[in-house]
Amino acid sequence: MSESARAQQLALAEAVRRACIDAARNGYRRAAISGLCPEGAQEAALGAIEMANLEPIIAALEMATSDHG
Fold it and tell me: CA-to-CA distance for 49 and 10, rounded, in angstroms?
C-alpha cells in the first residue's frame, strides 16, 4: 500500500472517529437537557452514533482524492 493510500485511510478513520464523538456528545447533551437519567442519556448518545450521517465524510474524501488524483 502506498503512503498516500495509507494517509487517506487514516484520514477517513479519523474523520469517522470525530463524527462519532461529536454525535455522542451532542446526543448525550440533548438527552440530559431533556431530563433523561444518565443511563438514558448514554443510550441516546449511542443512538446518535448509530444514526450519524457519514455521507459528508465520504464526499469530502472523494473530493480530496479527485483534487490529488
Answer: 20
Q: Cell numbers 498516500 correspond to what residue?
A: 4
Closest CA to 25 of 11, 40, 39, 46: 46
Cβ contact 58:9 at 8 Å = no
Residue 35 zone, left/alpha/beta (φ > 0; ψ -120 to 50; rest) = left
CA 40 to CA 48: how far, in whole Å? 12
Q: What is the pLDDT of residues 15-66, one digit of tens each?
A: 999 999 999 999 999 999 999 999 999 999 999 999 999 999 889 888 887 8
